[in-house]
UniProtKB/TrEMBL annotation, chain A:
<keyword id="KW-0472">Membrane</keyword>
<feature type="transmembrane region" description="Helical">
    <location>
        <begin position="167"/>
        <end position="189"/>
    </location>
</feature>
<comment type="similarity">
    <text>Belongs to the ABC-2 integral membrane protein family.</text>
</comment>
<dbReference type="GO" id="GO:0140359">
    <property type="term" value="F:ABC-type transporter activity"/>
</dbReference>
<dbReference type="InterPro" id="IPR000412">
    <property type="entry name" value="ABC_2_transport"/>
</dbReference>
<keyword id="KW-0812">Transmembrane</keyword>
<keyword id="KW-1003">Cell membrane</keyword>
<dbReference type="InterPro" id="IPR047817">
    <property type="entry name" value="ABC2_TM_bact-type"/>
</dbReference>
<feature type="transmembrane region" description="Helical">
    <location>
        <begin position="48"/>
        <end position="69"/>
    </location>
</feature>
<protein>
    <recommendedName>
        <fullName>Transport permease protein</fullName>
    </recommendedName>
</protein>
<keyword id="KW-0046">Antibiotic resistance</keyword>
<keyword id="KW-1133">Transmembrane helix</keyword>
<keyword id="KW-0813">Transport</keyword>
<dbReference type="GO" id="GO:0046677">
    <property type="term" value="P:response to antibiotic"/>
</dbReference>
<dbReference type="GO" id="GO:0043190">
    <property type="term" value="C:ATP-binding cassette (ABC) transporter complex"/>
</dbReference>
<dbReference type="InterPro" id="IPR051784">
    <property type="entry name" value="Nod_factor_ABC_transporter"/>
</dbReference>
<feature type="transmembrane region" description="Helical">
    <location>
        <begin position="25"/>
        <end position="42"/>
    </location>
</feature>
Length: 264, 292
């Protein structure tokens, strides 16, 4: 379909812009390095932290970078411009998803290898373990990215988006077995963590790194991923269309005046 | 395709009847009627806050109207498809989007959305941005940025182009160049709806102008028709008995005839001064403003 191929081109160009900007690249590298440092500091739990970090990078990209990009595109008129193109919104979303997927997977893989080299957290030892790693990351990402789109569609501007999203996302990181084992948490908090994709992603990556001795987590994980992916996509599609349709040149100008103070 | 000899509203590019818009209890448009023929360059003129942008956004399909009939290229713009989008170009008031894209990069990308798009190099030449082709949009000057907006508006060779206040903030030279571009698009057969608060711009470019004040169309027509509609009086001046005489009249021809009869020959120093469109417009803004 034409919109999809236009979207792919869009995403590729935006990736090129990212690579050209040393500021953006170092922003993404910073989070990767942070997990390496934490794993270094908690070296008895290095594998847990690196596995959790690999999962978290996907979730962080989906839930913070994506809404931010969306909110700023809404703010500066990119979304409105795109709306004037035939099938523009579909192409835009396709491009954004391609962009954000590449960023998430690249940072996750980077942490995987950095962790193996520096923190001795290991690499998947078998083909099955690699497959586990891939399906967990891809499915988990597919489960969280729609939520990111949804947040970006709802939030009014980029700065606010970041502020409102950071706190709950880091809270989620704290309870999902990323920094310490889930079993240290009270039972009800474990149930909360289990209803989000991150816990299952972290567990899946850990299984892959240790070449999976435990079973039985795959089915519930798949269920949670599917539920989030489907519900998130439906809600995001609806909300995104709604906000884009509410945008107009005059509301854009009004918001710009509010954000930069009175013009002239 | 566009060789219609007779233009009924059915094949007009834009037809609007009794268009109303209100936000809550605040009425912004109070029943607007207008028709724009294919190939016409139509100006919507009015002071700031008159409702021009709201009107245009409804026609562009960016805003839902409260009431009234609207057809744009044969379709209701509140429910349009991709085929319609391909035939319409939009240049809105203020853009700051795609700041990190380079000019050529964005044009090449946008060209991919249309079946008969301008070749990017052709377009760069047309809007005079060849030298800025590899610059990021965020680094362009205001006037250059505006030309990118127009380039993106026309890139798909639309049948109908909306230009909302295109020359705000231009210096006289940039404005002149821009006007030449607009006129060349019109010559190529494009229907153009231009909004402006600059009367001179409307006068210079438009075939017909509609004046919108406080959400009402107070006059619509060619410059001459506009002057007639507002019935501003013409000044007739002459010299009689060694003194300058002057009289205001709605029918200068009649007055001159009477003077001829009276003088029984040539009238000394005869002058008939028709109101300029500017006088007309300012007169309208004044009266309508006073009524509100």
């Amino acid at each position: 379909m034409e919109a999809i191929s236009n979207g792919m081109r869009r995403g590729t160009i935006e990736l090129r812009h990212l690579v050209r900007s040393s500021k953006d690249v170092s922003n993404y590298l910073f989070t990767v390095v942070m997990f390496v440092l934490i794993a270094n500091w908690r070296h008895q739990q290095a594998q847990l932290v690196i596995a959790g970090g690999i999962a978290s990078l996907s979730v962080l990209t989906a839930l913070t970078s994506l809404p931010q990009a969306l909110a700023s595109d809404k703010m500066d008129g990119t979304l409105l411009r795109v709306r004037g193109l035939p099938s523009g919104l579909l192409a835009y979303v396709t491009g954004k998803i391609l962009f954000i997927t590449c960023v998430a997977l690249t940072s996750s893989l980077l942490l995987l290898f950095l962790g193996a080299g520096i923190n001795h957290s290991g690499l998947p030892g078998t083909v099955t373990a690699w497959l586990t790693l891939i399906w967990v990351l891809v499915a988990g990402f597919a489960a969280t990215a729609p939520l990111g789109l949804l947040i970006g569609a709802v939030l009014p501007n980029a700065r606010e988006a970041l502020a409102m999203v950071m706190f709950p996302v880091y809270g989620l990181l704290a309870i999902s077995g990323v920094f310490f084992p889930l079993s240290l948490l009270p039972g009800w908090l474990q149930v909360v963590a289990e209803s989000f994709p991150l816990k299952w992603m972290a567990q899946g990556v850990r299984e892959a790194l240790t070449s999976g001795a435990h079973g039985g987590w795959q089915l519930p994980a798949l269920g949670i991923f599917l539920a989030w992916a489907v519900l998130g996509s439906l809600l995001a599609a609806w909300l995104l269309q709604r906000t884009t349709h509410r945008e107009s040149g005059s509301s854009l100008a009004r918001r710009r005046e509010l954000s930069t103070g009175p013009a002239k | 395709m566009m060789e219609m000899t007779e233009n009924t509203p059915a094949d007009a590019a834009v037809s609007v009847s009794d268009l109303r818009m209100s936000y809550g209890s605040h009425d912004v448009l109070h029943g607007i009627d207008l028709t724009i023929q294919r190939g016409e360059l139509f100006a919507l003129l009015g002071p700031n806050g008159a409702g021009k942008t709201t009107t245009v956004e409804i026609l562009e399909g960016y805003r839902k109207r409260s009431a009234g009939e609207v057809r744009v290229l044969g379709a209701d713009p509140s429910a349009v498809d991709d085929a319609w989008r391909r035939r319409v170009g939009v240049v809105m008031q203020s853009w700051r989007d795609h700041a990190r894209w380079r000019v050529r990069e964005l044009m090449v990308h946008f060209a991919g959305y249309y079946p008969h798009a301008y070749a990017p190099h052709e377009l760069l030449e047309l809007v005079g941005l060849k030298e800025q082709a590899d610059q990021e949009l965020g680094r362009l000057s205001g006037g250059q940025r505006r030309r990118v907006d127009v380039a993106l508006g026309i890139i798909g060779r639309p049948e109908l182009l909306f230009l909302d206040e295109p020359t705000t903030g231009f210096d006289p030279q940039a404005r002149r160049t821009f006007h030449e571009l607009i006129l060349s698009l019109k010559d190529a057969g494009m229907t153009i709806l231009l909004t402006t608060h600059d009367l001179e711009e409307a006068e210079r470019l438009a075939d017909r102008t509609a004046i919108l004040i406080r959400g009402r169309l107070v006059a619509c027509g060619t410059p001459t028709q506009l002057a007639h509609k507002v019935q501003a009086s013409a000044q007739v001046r002459w010299t009689a008995e060694g003194a300058a005489q002057s009289q205001a009249t709605h029918d200068p021809s009649q007055l001159v005839w009477e003077l001829h009869e009276k003088f029984g020959g040539p009238i000394p120093d005869l002058e008939v001064i028709r109101p300029s469109l500017e006088d007309t417009y300012l007169g309208l803004v004044r009266t309508e403003g006073a009524q509100a």
